[in-house]
Amino acid sequence: MSFNTFGKLFRFTTWGESHGPAIGCVVDGCPPNISIREDDIQKELNKRKPGQSKFTTQRKEDDKVNILSGIFEGKTTGTPISMIIYNKDMRSRDYETIKNKFRPGHADYTYFKKYGIRDYRGGGRQSARETAARVAAGAIAKKVLENKIGKKYKVIGAVTQLGILGCDLKKWNDKFISKNPFFCPDRSIIKLWEKYLLSVRKAGSSCGAIIEVRARGVPIGLGAPIYSKLDMDLASAMMSINAVKGINIGSGMNSAQLTGEENSDEILKKGKKINFKSNNAGGILGGISSGQDIIISFAVKPTSSILTKRQTIDRFGKNTSISVKGRHDPCVGIRAVPIGEAMMHCVILDHYLMNIAQCGN
User: Fold this and answer.
1) What pTM, to 2 d.p., does this model score?
2) Which long-range contacts (CB under 8 A, 24 or more apart) does 108-114 make?
């Protein structure tokens, strides 16, 4: 399998399978002399790890990261940073009864048709377990950007819609996001979300979600206007996350419903400061960051592994049915929040380094 590496100047390569001994990644292109500890990476991984509430999969993984190379005396050396996370709570037996069946909505069918072989234990390489390695890479990118840009740089993600239930973005509260199991920014909707998702789980079903990721303090000028647009690479990054099926940048798809007057982000100067009246562009104009908040949202489909019996075929081409037992997220979108944040960090650092290479600042 090819294409396991993401990025241009700041790159990471992930490896491993859901039920293999371990997963991990190798980060290349990280600048030297950046202070990084395992705790910095662990903090981000803890936001994503399974089994933290009754609203996520009950698979218990510590997701304890070990740094194998690239850091000496607490600082990056400029050489490849290798990290490993051991898998501990695998139940491969849960998949024995369906190992010859293709799970609808999963990549089982296309993977098998392409490669002629697949690891049926939790989806193998297809599994969202791989995303833990991305979060580790994103934690490193975050530390570099905080070092280079300063404290004004911040990325924060949240679930803004759970299934059919949205939230009020005008009530967005950064501090509340980390204090609830949904990564929800709106305190007023939590009780309703709890009741809704518990009913979905009890029915053996699942629901989708919309995640919004905001990056603040991003310098003006990141990105290139043709084949390396910042929004193009961000869209690619978010679409690479498991189960993501749609992307909006700024007003996104809703832009089609606006008039030119409504959509244009008017620019004003007050004293020495440049201000925009609105941010329909999501902080990116012509593929280049404008200095406004970069705002991107993505839709995550419902978890495909559900108890409800569905029609499918087996590897021999025969019609059959399947009910997927085991430990699965009733809404996989919840744990996608730290993954979206990580991919935002990685893309912004990649473009930050490319901008220095071309423009010197």
Assistant:
1) 0.94
2) 109/313, 112/315
